[in-house]
Here is the input.
Amino acid sequence: MANEAPYIRLLSIRRFRGIEKLLWRPGKGVNVLLGGGDVGKTTILEAIVLLLNPTNASTLSDADYWQRKYEDGFAIEAVMALPLSCGIAEQRKSVWPWEWDGTTAKVPDMDAEAAQPNDPVFCLRVCGTPDFELQHEICQPDETFDHFPVSVRRNIGLVRLSGDDRNDRDLRLIQGSALERLLSDKTLRSRLGNEIAKTDVKGVLHDDAKTALGNLDERFGKRALPTDLSLGLVGGPGFSLNALIGLTATKDGTMLPLSSWGAGTRRLAALEVAAAHQVEHPVMVVDEIERGLESYRQRVLMEELIARPSQVFVTTHSAPAVSAAVGASLWYVDTGGTVGELHTTVGPQQKRDPETFLARVAIIAEGATEVGFVTTLINRSLGEDMRRYGIWVSDGGSNSEALAVLRGIAHSGLKVAGFADNEGTQMGLWQRVKDKLGPLLMRWDNGCLETNLIPHLADDQLEAFIRDPDGDDGERLRTLADRAGSQDKSLAAIQAATDNIRQLMIEAACGNAPAELAESIRKAWKKHGQRWFKSTAGGVELAEKMFALGLWPQVQPQLLPFVNAVRDAVGLPPVQTVD
Here is the structure.
């Protein structure tokens, strides 16, 4: 324990801001919190900051309490492994460690031969009282509570990168800032005051100002008030001379405050200042790692954080940052405020489409056609662009790859939606995903989009369905003629050459090719689907034709529960149909 970095093993949040209840066991290294906006990612980071805050300067408001019910208070608790260098064992009153059993802290066996628990941890918490006061406490194994002092919190170490105002604060000598903790010069304020007091401010006044000050001195004398007035820099409540001092650097030959540089440079500078603190491996909290940073700097910063021995907590809405988070623990926060670890099976999806993990609700569609179809379907149900609600449709790559991603996310107990064909394979695995996701998984009872729409076409709708958005039907009729063995490529001739025109359309649209055909013919037939709907644009076309040709009522029983499940996941009421 003596040489380890501080490590939060279990974090509990109750009634803090937008989180009513949360229990999380983060990883030891870098923890990247993903998910859409307003799901609680920043609140989790702010809870960690409040618990380990190296000062007592924080003030509370009713917005810090769940649903503003300040009378119920809030509590943020952590079970932490701590190095002895933080001074946790050097308090005037002994602080006894608990024992980590793999999931929580337990009272150590006092009768055991070992003098120390096998895996010692400490239980720390901060509470917000109904009187808007903060109480930092250490919970002892006998369930008594002692004060959790600033000195220990400072020695644990906290590096925080949040908004630009916080970055500027850490670049100045404000009490509790990273720069102030780094320099740790406790007598600077008084020495600085003495030096400034020697400055002859009165001597540099204009003559009129000197006269006015002299007249004021006379008036003071007549009223028996203090005389011999002069001017000097004075302090007051909330004011510190040190706060006027900050890091400067040379730019184009001119000494300028570091706060005049760009947002990204200020953030990286604040990180370096904090990292240079005497605490060897501080807990690091980085909210929106991409703020002010170009894509390449985001990747570099993420890689540097992963290389550090510190426990790090990061939020991001950046696809480049997610792609660079190789080796980090990825956590997805869903719209219900649940935190779940993303399984390693989502790795390919992390590279293929990082935005999957940045949405409030992600829909994993098995292919490009499904992406276009589902996007159109959901947009129509909303009457506007679904992205306004944080809904993102992602190409899962294939039926089996989509299954792997859905299993990886659903295994964590998180909200995710899926839209897939029924290819008659891996039925048991698909059923387990369905059991977890319910109506959020739309999987046809049999077949795919084409096999579930084309059979419902009336005879007088066939031509309109075959015609592409530009009004051309030549290429698609050619694929049908090839399969029917018809030299005449008119629809009437093709119908005369086959006993099931709709099945022929399904085979062509899907690019099916029997194994007994010659290889050259099979290759040509497999490409037929590209001339129909095997693209994102094709999926959009298929959805539009479903509504335009009145096919929606035939598939509504299967599709409407999925639509309403997605709407419910973002807090919207159900609809009776989709127009």
Notes: The chain has a mean pLDDT of 87.
